[in-house]
C-alpha cells in the first residue's frame, strides 16, 4: 500500500511538473507566434550547419551518405541540448528568478522526480524541433529518408535509452548548479560543447586524434547518435563513416546501455552529494543574479 501511494505521489509530481514546464515554455506569447517560433528556430539552426557544409563540399548531392550523417547528427543533437538545459536550468530559474526552490524543496515530493518532470517539457519542444528539422531536410535538401524504411523499434529503443541518459546527466549538472552562482549556464554550454565535439555529432570520430577518439568512445551520447543514424537509414552504409562500423547494432546498443548505466550511477551520486553540500552550506535559497 505504501509503495502504491509513493508511486502515485511520484506520478502526480511528474505530471504537474511537466504541465508547469510546458506552460513556462509555451505560454509566453500567442499560440500562432509560438508555432512560428517553433518552426523557424530549428530551421535557422540547421541552415547554419548546412551552409557550412555547402561552402566546404559545394552541394548536398555529391556525397549524400555523408550529408545524411552530418544532418541527422545535427538534428538529433537538439535533444541533447534541450535535455541538459531543461534539467539544469530548473534549479537556476526556481532559485534565482521565481525564488520558489525552497518551497518546492520543503514540499512532500521528490525533487528528483520534479526535475525530470520539468525536463519533459523541454524534451517535448525538442521533439517537435527534430521532426521539423527532418521534414525540412526531406522536402528541401533531398535527405534520403523514407518512413517505411526506418527501423522504428530500434529507433524507439534508442530514443528511450538515450533520453534517460541525457536527463540523468542533466540531473548531475543540476546538482552542481546548487553550488554555483548564476554561471550554471556556462557549465551547460561547456558540457554540451564537449559532447558536440567528441561524440560525432557532425563529423566522425575518425577525424579526432587518438585521445579525442578515446574520450568519445567513453561517452554514451556517441553510441546513441550512432544507433539513431542506423535506425533512420538502415542498410545505407552510414555506419561505415563513424569509425564504429565494425560493431553490430546489438553491440552498439550494449555499449549504449553499459555507458548510460555508469553515467546514471555517477550522476545520481553527484546530485545527492551536491544536494547534501547545498543544505549544509545554506545555498538552497541564495540569490546571485547580480
Global structural class: mainly alpha
- Distance from N terminus to C terminus (CA atoms, Å) equals 48 Å
Low-pLDDT segments, ≥5 res: none
**Gross geometry:** globular
Oligomer: single chain
Please estimate the helix content: over 70%
> What are the secondary-structure elements, in order, as H or E?
HHHHHHHHHH
Please summarize what this structure is.
The protein has 290 residues and is mostly helical. It contains 10 helices and no strands.
Describe it.
The protein is mainly α and 290 residues long. It contains 10 helices and no strands. The longest helix is centred in the N-terminal third of the chain and has 34 residues.
Amino acid at each position: 500500500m505504501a509503495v502504491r501511494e509513493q508511486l502515485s505521489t511520484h506520478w502526480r509530481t511528474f505530471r504537474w511538473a511537466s504541465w508547469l514546464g510546458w506552460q513556462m515554455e509555451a505560454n509566453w506569447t500567442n499560440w500562432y507566434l509560438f508555432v512560428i517560433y517553433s518552426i523557424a528556430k530549428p530551421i535557422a539552426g540547421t541552415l547554419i550547419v548546412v551552409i557550412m557544409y555547402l561552402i566546404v563540399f559545394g552541394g548536398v548531392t555529391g556525397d549524400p551518405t555523408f550529408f545524411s550523417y552530418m544532418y541527422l547528427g545535427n538534428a538529433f543533437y537538439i535533444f541533447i541540448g534541450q535535455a541538459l538545459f531543461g534539467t539544469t536550468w530548473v534549479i537556476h530559474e526556481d532559485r534565482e528568478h521565481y525564488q520558489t526552490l525552497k518551497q518546492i524543496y520543503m514540499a512532500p515530493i521528490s525533487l528528483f522526480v520534479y526535475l525530470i518532470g520539468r525536463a519533459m517539457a523541454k524534451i517535448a519542444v525538442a521533439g517537435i524541433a527534430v521532426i521539423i528539422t527532418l521534414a525540412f531536410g526531406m522536402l528541401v535538401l533531398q535527405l534520403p529518408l523514407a518512413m517505411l524504411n526506418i527501423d522504428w523499434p530500434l529507433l524507439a529503443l534508442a530514443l528511450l535509452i538515450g533520453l534517460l541518459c541525457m536527463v540523468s546527466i542533466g540531473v548531475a549538472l543540476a546538482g552542481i548548479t546548487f553550488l554555483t552562482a548564476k554561471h550554471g549556464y556556462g557549465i551547460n554550454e561547456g558540457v554540451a560543447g564537449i559532447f558536440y565535439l567528441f561524440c560525432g555529432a557532425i563529423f566522425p570520430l575518425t577525424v579526432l586524434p587518438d585521445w579525442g577518439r578515446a574520450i568519445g568512445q567513453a561517452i554514451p551520447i556517441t553510441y546513441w547518435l550512432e544507433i539513431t543514424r542506423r535506425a533512420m537509414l538502415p542498410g545505407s552504409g552510414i555506419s561505415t563513416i563513424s569509425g564504429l562500423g565494425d560493431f553490430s547494432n546489438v553491440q552498439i546498443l550494449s555499449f549504449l546501455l553499459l555507458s548510460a548505466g555508469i553515467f546514471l550511477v555517477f550522476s545520481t551520486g553527484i546530485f545527492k552529494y551536491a544536494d547534501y553540500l547545498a543544505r549544509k552550506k545554506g545555498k538552497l535559497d541564495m540569490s546571485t543574479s547580480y
